Amino acid sequence: MNPEFWHQKWHNSELGFHLLQVHPLLQRYLDELALKAGQTVFLPLCGKTLDIGYLLEKGYRVIGAELSDKAVTDLFASLNRQPVMTDWQGGKRYQHGDLCVFQGDIFLLQSGDIAAPDAIYDRAALIALPEAMRARYARHLLTITDKSPQLLITLEYDQQEMDGPPFSVGEPQIKALYGADYSVASLSRKMILDHEPVFRERGLTALYENAFLLG
């Protein structure tokens, strides 16, 4: 997918993917990652999610990766943090205390940049990518995190009824992408279309939200 697509989304404030609350599935299943205070959670394609503030309040360090500089500056502003900015090979690094976000191309991020985080939380990264990019993304994520355990949230629907993003990614696709490196446990699968009228307007007749633990 062309990066300009996402830059335009942020520029035009077309942020239907941005939740105005901490994700309920993160709150419900965070303990499944068995993290200790001070350990690090990596959020790929993090945007300005409120989940970051929640993780920080829980006592974890957070590393994010995000293409949009506007998303990153909005994130730090929302947390009332003034970051120190430095260059990295893919863009700008924003750092303040226990929060570090790499703005730029996630595929240029290297394992040495994030030093094997203790867990990954993917709420909107995998489903933001078209099928042709997902295998590359999954391999890259495995490489840079040294196969850290992962809490993964996806959406699932009939892809013929609606073009993504977000794209439909169900358990068979998760196992195809990650099954050789993780055990894949389904934590929940819930119909959410009644709570997401915008997707009904886009033509969907069913929409499921899935949570997986990869470990």
Automatic annotation (TrEMBL):
InterPro entries attached to this UniProt entry: SAM-dependent_MTases_sf (IPR029063), Thiopur_S-MeTfrase_Se/Te_detox (IPR022474), Thiopurine_S-MeTrfase (IPR025835), TPMT (IPR008854)
Keyword ATP-binding included in the entry's annotation: no
Enzyme class: transferase
Substrates-to-products reaction catalysed: S-adenosyl-L-methionine + a thiopurine = S-adenosyl-L-homocysteine + a thiopurine S-methylether
Locations listed in the record: Cytoplasm
SUPFAM superfamilies in UniProt: S-adenosyl-L-methionine-dependent methyltransferases
Entry binding sites for S-adenosyl-L-methionine: 10, 45, 66, 123
EC number(s) given by UniProt: 2.1.1.67
Superkingdom of the source species: Bacteria
Keyword annotations from UniProtKB, A to Z: Cytoplasm, Methyltransferase, S-adenosyl-L-methionine, Transferase
Record carries keyword Transmembrane: no
Chief location: cytoplasm
Pfam family name, one: TPMT
Family label: Belongs to the class I-like SAM-binding methyltransferase superfamily. TPMT family.
NCBIfam families cross-referenced by the UniProt entry: PRK13255.1 (NF009732), TMPT_Se_Te (TIGR03840)
Record HAMAP family: Thiopur_methtran (MF_00812)
Protein name, per record: Thiopurine S-methyltransferase
